[in-house]
Amino acid sequence: MTTKRIVVISSGLSTPSSTRQLADRLAADADGILRERGFDVEVRTYELRDLAHDITNHLLMGFAPPKLEEVLDAVSKADGLIAVTPIFTTSYAGLFKSFIDVVDTQALTDLPVLIGATGGTPRHSLAIDYAIRPLFTYLHAIPVTTGVYAATSDWGDGGDGVRSLPDRIFRGAKEFADLVERTDRSELVNDPFALDRPAGHLIGGLTGE
């Protein structure tokens, strides 16, 4: 049975957070769809708030501490990425962008990405298309057509004639599953000049232990 590896990134700052809740719902639907199609699915979920100091250290020092290295490695080997961020001042969270900045520029090439975002008001739903989608497109990822935005009011009954949040989650997850099903990243080309240890290990005798 073929295993599909899905990495879920949540950049919510509170605990619990609606950002993590949306991430879990997207992952659960994608997992269910792929399993119905006969795939084994491995889902790894990471809270960026737990890696904030490591991300900052990577930006300052140029190498990833072990916990962050694990996440970066998982992203590079994934068959699909679910990325969810809160919207602050009409765009993605700074923590979310900082994480993307430390991801290898080649790691997202041809990687299906399901974008999710949360915010207090529906007015910021367009941030997915004018801010987040171009970011992943620039990095040669493949964002699915449907991005899922959840405002505070969306966690209710989904009335007033607007497509309900569960419907939008399922639609996005299905489009994502369609791409993941066709994705084969098992033969990623390794850079023959890449270091088998972070560059920081060459500076000052760092051992990473």
Automatic annotation (TrEMBL):
Keywords of this entry: Flavoprotein, FMN, Oxidoreductase
Stretches assigned to coiled coil: none
Gene Ontology molecular function, alphabetical: oxidoreductase activity
Residues annotated as domain NADPH-dependent FMN reductase-like: 5-155
InterPro entries xrefs: CE1759_FMN_reduct, Flavoprotein-like_sf, FMN_Rdtase-like_dom, NAD(P)H-dep_FMN_reductase
A Pfam cross-reference name: FMN_red
The keyword Flavoprotein is annotated on this UniProt entry: yes
Database matches in PANTHER family: FMN REDUCTASE (NADPH)
The name this protein goes by in its record: FMN reductase
Organism: Agromyces bauzanensis
